[in-house]
Give the backbone structure.
Amino acid sequence: MNRTPDDSPVQVLIDLARVDRNLRRLHTRAARHGVRVRAHVKGHRTAELALRQCAAGAVGVAVTQLAQARQYVAAGIREVVIAHPWPEPFRWRETAELARHCRVSAHVDSEAAVAGIADAADRLGVTVGVRVQLGTGLDATATPDDRILAVARAAAARSSLRLDGVTAYQALLTAADAEDPAAVGRATAAYAVRTAALLRRAGLPCPDVAVGGTPTAEGALTEPGVTEICSGAYALYDGGMLAAGACTPQDVAVTVVATDREAADRVLDQHPYPWQRAADHRRLAGTAPPGTRLVPPHICALTPQIRTVTVYEHDEERHIGIWQVLNAQDAIPAPPAGSAPRRGS
């Protein structure tokens, strides 16, 4: 059986000409509104494309894993947001360590996390930025509304922390959301802007009002007061973005060739968008290179399952090379010897 270079049942192809058009479009639109763009690299997980996004105007990257953050910094990225409010002390220490090498800001959702990051930063003599993570009642990682001011005040009180502001993200959860993603973006942005105003009225700094999401960005950009859009899928897009009307077929810069269709379906069907049907593959015209050519339903779910991408320009006219996918995961420290095992372990 023929296999791709990393022995995957799919070969992932990226068209750089389409990528560059996508970058220009979002960055130009954001600049028109006076808003920065941050590239959430979960949508491609390659250092080469992250650097291309920064060269095109992105202020930096967002990642969830500290191990991946270190890889991007080693590649030359100089501003990183840890886009998940991790509760584990080892990650607080690693966040502070990262601040020795770049400007870093971490999402937080509790006073305990604020204190843990600050203590680690104090020990290393560094400054770490923090962003209070907002969300809906359905978001388990969001700071409860009645704790937002307390978390922000705790951050502002520590000299080793920089209270960068607030960050909000609302996924498209239903088919109705996907039919009007701009409305979801506007509502999320309005909530973030109101919360920023709450912090400022309390005498707290709130320079950054960041809103996440690719399909919702159009709506979020129209809300005065938003300072940053954190977008993941905008460089490549995918079948879900196409179905939600966030792009056209000509914008999709990633396709896959199935070397084993049954195995490929198992890869592609992993973790669809919440509103998306399983096996919602969208076939593209043409079959070059040979094989069944598909648009992945959810690019952020595909990249953790592959090790390389094959990069072309202008619909395979010019082969650029094979890029490594950065899928390093944080190593969870072993419990101390003699400690009781965790429940369920």
